[in-house]
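URGENT: need a sanity check before tomorrow's submission.

F., can you look over the DNA-binding response regulator record below? I want to be sure the sequence and structure line up before it goes out.
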Amino acid sequence: MTFNILIVDDHPMTVDSYVNLLSEEGFNTVEPFFIQSYNCETAYKKIVLLEKQNVKIDFAIIDVNLPPYPDQNISNGIDLAALIRKTHPACKILLLTMHTEAFIVNRVINEIQPEGFISKSEVNFESFPNICKKILLSEIIYSDEIIKSQKKISQRNLDWGEYDIQILILLSQGVKMIDIPNHLPLSLSSIEKRKAYIKSHLLPEKGGDIELINKARQLGFL
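Structure tokens as predicted:
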């Protein structure tokens, strides 16, 4: 019986490093089998194929920032993690990221509830295997930067939903209001109402989208 570990990162050397580090660890005398991908497309296809073959993924290590797979609306590692939650619900998930902006962290924790969520700046060759061991022993491991970012949302009592956060992120990426319905299953009028709600929390004074985005960045949300 094998212990299937999915590793997804767009840097092949990083994937190789994870494989080498974990190959030296014991998995309760079970032989680890590594499934490697470097982008959302190949990872998506492997995840779906394994589900069809009734082959489980026991542990998934996924970088948040990955080349997307637009054909299946898979934009990043967060979307891959959501897919794994649906197709392989018993799988333990470790997400790694270089970006600890509060809205991204909040989305991951609320939508995915990963067993591990680590800032790449807080992990090294020595700590990585220990983090994985703890997760596989059913510990929840969030790094200090992740916890710090999460508190930025809770301290301001922002009761925002998934779409509110995505609207702000899309605006910060330069997507125009009129085009946001192409990215989210919402009408333009609903999006405008949600944006007004966001502005009431972040920008009580007058200002447009640029001022709103700048304020969100000043607060460390983006």
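My own read: Strands lie at 2-8, 31-37, 59-63, 92-97, 116-119, 141-142. The CA atoms of residues 101 and 222 lie 5 Å apart. If you see anything odd, call me.
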